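Extended Data, record RIPR3 protein
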Amino acid sequence: RSCSFTGFSTVQSRKLAKSLSRSSVRSRMSLKPPKAYNSLQKGALIWDPKPLQVKKIFEALKKGLNEYLEAHQAELDYLSGRHKDTKRNSRLAFYYDLDKQIRSVERYIRKLEFHISKVEELYEAYCIQCRLRDGATNMKQAFSLSPASKASRESLVELYRNVQECTEDMCFIEGALEVHLGEFHVKMKGLVGFARLCPGDQYEVFVRLGRQKWRLKGKIETDDSQTWDEEEKIFIPNLHEKFEIKVTELRGLATILVGVVTCDSINFFTTKPQAIIVDITELGTIKLRLEVLW
């Protein structure tokens, strides 16, 4: 079996390796790294694509964008209906104001449609590079098990280069896709702890998403209300990172760790604000309430 595969490699494998190389180079020329994507800066490229995670984010993103599209299409249908009625029996100024609203919604719908098509195009290119990389990897493994020869060594070198190029292209596409993820507006809604929270207690909440950080301090007042020095923070979604939340209690100069949890952002890509209650302690005696709007 190894001998027959080696005979096949001298012609067919080189053709496949060259086609892989051409495809990789072609995609790399058309995918320039966006300036807004930090991990594409020199010396900071992530060389570990995660196709399964990218697929989850893509599906959630597309679903959320379609939700926005449906909502604005429904608004356009409503405004168009009013537009027809207004044209027959209403003031001219109100008619033109309604016409402006319709044109504005139409422009936004076109932007959403372009956004969706761009995301789909990027993901399709990503899947192609992923399949090319898998094929080159499988051939590389097969060649490594075949009898050594000059032809097999040349093919191995070529296939190794193809794997590297496909991996690089996948990283660039992940960066381009990440730019299209929008923003998460995270609002602090306070701690929930029942008997655990007492007037005068002070807490620090630290939220991290990749390199993005949000540190805020709060105090439990005598009427059981809470005051926080910040109430809202904007985070840029990340394909690979989850939200990490750390809560500590401040007692004079000492700090006591209450708990550290992680929170996936996969469910945040939706039109409606998401109310989140996170168990900070293992028993759930202290919870953190947040609201996320995408």
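Summary. The chain has two domains: 51-179, 184-293.
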